[in-house]
Fold each of these.
Amino acid sequence: MMKNALNFSLADFFFNDSTNVLTPPSDFLEWMQDERIQAGFSFFEQQLLDAPRAVTKIHSNIDGKDRRVINFTSYNYLGLSTHPEVVQAVIDGVKKYGMGASGSPMLSGTFDVHVKFARMLADFKKKDDCILYSSGLGGNVGAMQGLLRKGDLLVMDEKIHKSLVDGGTLSGAKMAFFKHNDMEHLDQILSENKGKRTLLAVEGVYSMDGDLVKLPEIVDMIDSKYPNVGIYLDEAHSSLMFGKSGRGVGEHFGLEEKVGMDYGTLSKSFGGVGGFICSNKMIIRYLKGYSSPYNFSCAPSPAIVCGLMKSLEVATRDSTLRDKLWENTKYFKEKLQALKLNIGQTVSQVIPIIIGSSGEMLFEMATELQTHGLFLQPVDFPAVPAHERRFRLSMTSQITKEEMDEALNIIEDVIVKKLKKAGTI
Ligand SMILES: Cc1ncc(COP(=O)(O)O)c(C=O)c1O
């Protein structure tokens, strides 16, 4: 057995010195033999046996049992994945169009519903045009790879999603990271690179912390000092939820016009799968020409697009779903704070419960939470800093007060009890 196996993480096995590329590093194989590491990995790829509703059923890898769980792990923020009108639209779509698009958008994969949905999204986001991708990750990778070239600069918040970093790597552009939401550091990087073709990529809601981008400060800085820097805003966790009309954090701050490229995923609040970017007509046309995940990949399933059009319609015809989401978020956050739990700087439906540096404690808690009937995934280093290991909770508009209270009781019995015992709260 490997000594101190718990001191290692996936961050330690990236480089592989085995002579055969198809053989993982020998120390990785040794690490994976450790029972405690296997127990940690068992939290991955657990099977949902029902829809990703607020209450669902999973096959637990922890003890091999099927059980009912309160589900704070799915991104079905507005419950649209299972909304009856959306489900019916998908059924009707699949009957008409079949299962897949059977072609890339440039050749035979563009259907009438793709064109219609892209127009709906562009109008919704108040931009000229929209490009659809079959995955959210593909959209970010494709935008960076399609727009940036060697010699360009991609500046990103250090907490940016991996898809933007991967796209940046693929593009060959130089990449620079500023400290999370640190405007002085951003200013320093931009001033050191003045004159370079530069894109600034930020997220509306940061996905592990639930805090917002400081868009007003960024816009002020760019307008006054760096007018050629373009802003790319990833609204994966904010579209349909933030802003008076649900257009996202850009609308929330009244700064949509300053956002050059407005990115969204269709897998979270929309309840389906895919990605999209709204911008001006000619840059979308240009991007379509050079973005491999668009050009060289099958178009989104037309049946899913039928469901997504219905999602957009349901979420925007009034504010019922958003209002419920914010009501639930407020209730749950206040209760967590009353329990003295550290929920960081969140101002959104993404709520971290920060445990601290003990990975062992995190996984002990995760095991108990699950056997008590709460599906809440542990988030370990390197996904988050080693001293801020956490649970990351996704609130949903679909959960009832009784279910939230049931979850809070489990959190108190498991997390609060252990943190009190450790003297942390
Ligand atoms: C901020 C952000 N951008 C992009 C993505 C990629 O979206 P998808 O999961 O739909 O591929 C994610 C997904 O986790 C995300 O959190």
Amino acid sequence: MAKAKTATRSKKRPSSAGAAEGNTQLMKFFTDALKDIYWAEKNLTKALPKLMKAATTEELKAAIKTHIEQTKVQVQRLEEVFGLLGKKAQAKKCDAMEGLIKEGESVVEDTEDGSMTRDVAIIVASQKVEHYEIATYGSLVQLSVTLGLQDAADILAETLQEEKDTDEILTGIAEGNINWAAEQEEEA
Ligand SMILES: [Fe+2]
Ligand SMILES: [Fe+2]
């Protein structure tokens, strides 16, 4: 039975029919990874507003605000992907993102309100989050293709691009002015 399936499997499959049929180990892994990032995104919609409030410059506040709106849509996209799998969206605690969110909270506590160093710290913490997301969505897009879930791959690729764009925007803000201004700051 398994042999017959393998024989018909080609590297590129045109539709999502293939993966939806079965409960392969890879399919289970993929679904678990979706639950993990679903938890992460939902928690980021709560964590990012705190970072936005804590930020010093309007430039950084605006960038985080844009990404909060994107993150809300990313949550919906994941719900769409669960739907494509015929599953209800379910969140499973992501230990890595919990740690990264905690780190974001602690850098705010450890830096002075209204300082440029605060913004540097928020950018560094945020970029760690973005890089985690880039790694996750990059993998999920590839796994979707492998599983023959092209529609899911397309949806997840949209989010991947937003995470990459956000990372670049944060780099631009840091290098534009904030890192230099923080370097001029007196010790608290
Ligand atoms: Fe995200
Ligand atoms: Fe993000």
Amino acid sequence: MSRIESIELYLVQTPLPAPFSPAWVVGGTRSSSAYYLIRLRTDDGVEGFSAFTAMGRERAGIGDFLAHAFLGKDPTDIDHVLEMLRVPGYGGLRNFWIEPAFWDIKGKLAGQPVYRLLGGEPTPLRLYASSGEVKDVGARIDECWARHEEGFSTLKVRVHDFDERVDIRQIQEPAEALRGKLKLAVDCNQAFWHTANGPGPKWDLARAKRFCDAAYEADLAWVEEPLFMEWYDQMAELRAYSRVDVSGGELHTCGFPELKYMVEKRCYDIFQPDAMWTGGISQTLQVAKLVREAGLKFTGHSWSNGIGFAVNMHVLLASGFASEMEYEYPLSPPGWTAEARDSILTEPWRHDRGTLQPPTLPGLGFEIDEAALAHYGRCFFKANRTVRSWMPESLHDLSIPTTPVPREG
Ligand SMILES: [Mg+2]
């Protein structure tokens, strides 16, 4: 039996090619993508990786717990992994994002992609392009044409204005301009409120109903997160009211029990949990099973980094929904591109005319570019079965490398 021999934690910051202003952080502009990376290694040399969005240095101290919980343990015992990952959650720090690193090892030990290990078929994935920024109508129509020409059949846009008439115009006019060419969906990003500079718009049920009416009339594919994530009763009322599918579920960090409750209440037509937040691969697949039994729809949320994209792709491929639902492909140039999103992977997840072939490599299906990781990442914790090393000084300098990673040849 393989055992966990070592654990490393990194903070990675990769520069974006242009400033990026995510619709879900009002007033905020990013120049980099920041995330934590975990590298597990077994005593027979198999490595497993996972990664999770970093807000600052909030996970600087998690290494000691991980060393205590996992060194010397069987990496294929996922039930034990989840039991242990729950423990720091009782203190407020949810870490289900680490579970996929164990699946990565489990797949590599079995010589199979994780979705195959979980019974999924190698179904080519149809992708929808997921824009990340609010734009005025003219810029949005230009973007729609660009995605259409690249081969996408659906683009998800963002709205986030105080004036609901502006939001409605931002879906109506592009939908009309691209009618018959490109289907639109819309993400309202009302599930959580995160502002970097001044207040942001906060919708109530009445506004959400009016917006769903407008989205239906504009023939949109779905309306995503039009209400705050804990308003379960109002979500269920809106879903029953709306003539267009209502979707959401990406950040429900309590995992399976919370999403089970939401499926039972029929809060959404389309459940879009992100395994990195919603309980790892195992719990998110349990959600997919309940969604199927309830006659609702399921797909993945993937807006984080190239590893989060991979993990949720395996979930979708194993869920039974891969041939029915489009998968989110974050793409919001010039700031958010596949190369920037996936810059520590040897190969970015590039689409081909809006489709993606499932990975064939064992495990989660990507390889880490060690030169890129050394350039953009700072290791802040290392442990093996005899030595632990916490390196807080590596977190003091949070400046982002501005030069590209040196490449051989
Ligand atoms: Mg979303």
Amino acid sequence: MPPPTVLAGLVGKTNVGKTTFFTAATLVDAKIENRPFVTISPNVGVAYVRKRCAHVELGLPSCDPKNSICLGGYRFVPVKLYDVAGLIKGAHRGRGLGNKFMDDLRQADVLLHVVDMAGETDEEGNPVRPGYYDPLEEIESIESEIDEWFHGVVSRDWTRFSRELDVLPWDEVVSRIARRVSGLSIRREHVVRALRETKLEGTRPGSWREEELRLFTKRLREVAKPLVVVANKMDVPEAEDNFKRVYGILKDRRVVVPVSSLYELALRRAARSGLVSYIPGDGDFRVVDESRLTAKQKSALEVIREFMRKHGGTGVQEALNRAVLDVLGMVVVYPVENASKLSDRHGNVLPDAYLVREGTTALELSEMIHTELAKGFIAAYVVNRDKRVGADYRVSDGDVIKIVSATARG
Ligand SMILES: Nc1nc2c(ncn2[C@@H]2O[C@H](COP(=O)(O)OP(=O)(O)O)[C@@H](O)[C@H]2O)c(=O)[nH]1
Ligand SMILES: [Mg+2]
């Protein structure tokens, strides 16, 4: 079973740019064979994290990606992106599209909270003049909405549930809690961490007061569904001051990325129609043929270039990368069958890039490649480090790995 696909959910109130971000992030101009990429359903699509491709690191001229894309020396590894229904106050009580929203949220591994940094939408998402609404308020109210929902789900019928726990050994207590929240894509290790960090480890859940239960559910939400702030609409002048202030307040506890989804969308569309050459995540782009551009297009592109110069890009790719690579701590590894050609058995060079959790072992990786391979696991050969390792080896970012197995296929 290949590694589970990471799910990132775009959350936020209405009119902040979720759909613009979603459309931009899932619009990739690349020749892809038989891949169910781009939009899976109206609000589920494939976006990518971007890493230097191993073929560049290893000094090879090119590669033959199958499960991912290589553009300009960067490997784009797919993740699933949800454009979640707009969230409004009271959604956790089923207001608006509350229930649909919460269903989408259940599955997410990480949340991209899209915020209108220009402050041109009020609490309910209605347009107002730029600078009118305080984005910090938006950040806090959406977060507490999510926390409320989460608390409601986890603490349902808690009194009865927790009494049953009190007679069990601690290990079993943790397992029962983990089982209770497994439908929210929460793993046991998340539960363990949240209990430890709230100093509730080893205590009797039946004796927790309401505030201790709240402390636990809040921490569990933060651990299992971390939020990254997408400070969107940074191209609007009023956004600048808001960003400085919000960043100053949040920087120690949140990843906050300045973004213009609008500019990224414009660039990806221009790239698709062949007007510019642009690799998502780059700090600049190139006009392919000046003579095909109208004066209006030219000046629009210049404005975008100016923005990118200031921020190092449009921020869309950066937000995805920070969420998946930094906040979730995922790494990219390249399994190969043929260690000398760095290829699969058909000679495709570096065909697959797997996005896996940091700390994944060589044995776990072999299970993701093929269960048969894992059954006969003998050792792994880390090609880029020229090192033979055992089942417990923890993979590092950029590893090219050949599994040596008694049951190897082919
Ligand atoms: N200036 C600016 N406008 C944006 C940006 N992203 C989205 N918008 C505009 O904000 C409005 C709402 O965008 P939409 O993506 O539909 O928001 P959603 O309701 O959160 O999905 C549209 O008019 C967009 O063009 C951005 O980065 N900059
Ligand atoms: Mg939308």
